[in-house]
């Protein structure tokens, strides 16, 4: 009879010896991470990625110095600042911001300000467009669209950021910023092409000079109607003064012709 013997199970392999952590290497790694992280945060801050939004609100009065918003350049290559633009204006400065020259939305916005230029400057505002485009790009834009106002070039987005129109991490938000001669912020709104024009139009409508002008017209019309009721003067509707003058001239010509005809018959 054959005797069966049980085989012994093979012994389990011993676990590999654990690596002892090197305290010097760990400390160096930690230090490297701290340095890298600090450098990244500094770079982000420089690029404006973590920049806080502008705290400028309507009604605030800015202390305008040449350092506010930094130095920018006109499309004609002249260096300037927001302070210089305000000082040179009669009633304040309107700056509409746009992302990129000659693109559809920006062209629409620029042309809306062009078409309403006479009205928007009627109370003394100086109109400017602002973008991060180069002087060459903005000059081409201005010439092609026949824009009657200067375009400002802000490649570093210094003024764009100062008035709260910088998009993170980069780019420009479409909007409009209005500041009076006294540094008071009258508007600081983001919006579409038409909305930015409407903001300025509303300011003009509410301006003291425009309100006074409308009130004067209203009172003059009321006085004219009252006098007409007494038969003292005829009512002359607004816009018909030229017609009255033409009629008077025609009457004078007719009288002269009649006199000449009468003298000829004698």
Fold and architecture overview:
- This protein is an alpha/beta fold and 266 residues long.
- It has helices spanning 23-47, 82-88, 104-115, 117-120, 135-145, 158-162, 193-205, 208-229, 241-265; strands at 72-74, 79-80, 92-97, 125-131, 150-153, 175-180, 185-190.
- A 7-stranded mixed β-sheet has the order 2-1-5-4-3-6-7, with helices on both faces.
- It starts with 22 loop residues before the first helix and ends with a helix.
Beta-strand percentage range: 5-15%
- Oligomeric grouping of the chains: single chain
Question: Percent of residues in helical segments?
Answer: 40-55%
Order of secondary-structure elements = HEEHEHHEHEHEEHHH
Number of helices: 9
């Amino acid at each position: 009879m054959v005797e069966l013997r049980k085989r012994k199970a093979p012994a389990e392999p011993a676990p590999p010896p654990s690596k002892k952590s090197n305290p010097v290497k760990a400390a160096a790694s930690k230090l490297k991470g701290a340095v890298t992280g600090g450098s990244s945060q500094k770079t982000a801050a420089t690029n404006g990625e973590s920049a806080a939004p502008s705290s400028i609100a309507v009604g605030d009065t800015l202390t305008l110095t040449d350092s506010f918003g930094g130095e920018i350049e006109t499309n004609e290559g002249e260096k300037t600042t927001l302070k210089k633009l305000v000082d040179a204006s009669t009633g304040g400065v309107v700056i509409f911001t746009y992302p990129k020259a000659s693109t559809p939305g920006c062209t629409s916005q620029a042309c809306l300000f062009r078409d309403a230029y006479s009205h928007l400057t009627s109370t003394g505002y100086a109109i400017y467009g602002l973008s991060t485009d180069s002087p060459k790009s903005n000059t081409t834009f201005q010439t092609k669209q026949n824009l009657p106002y200067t375009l400002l070039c802000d490649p570093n987005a210094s003024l764009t950021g100062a008035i709260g129109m910088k998009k993170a991490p980069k780019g420009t938000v479409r909007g409009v910023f209005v500041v009076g001669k006294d540094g008071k912020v009258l508007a600081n709104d983001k919006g579409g092409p038409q909305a930015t024009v409407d903001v300025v139009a509303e300011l003009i409508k509410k301006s003291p000079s425009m309100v006074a002008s409308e009130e004067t017209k209203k009172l003059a019309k009321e006085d004219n109607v009252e006098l007409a009721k007494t038969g003292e003067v005829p009512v002359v509707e607004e816009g018909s003064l030229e017609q009255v003058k033409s009629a008077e001239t025609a009457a004078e010509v007719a009288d002269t012709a009649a006199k000449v005809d009468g003298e000829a018959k004698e």
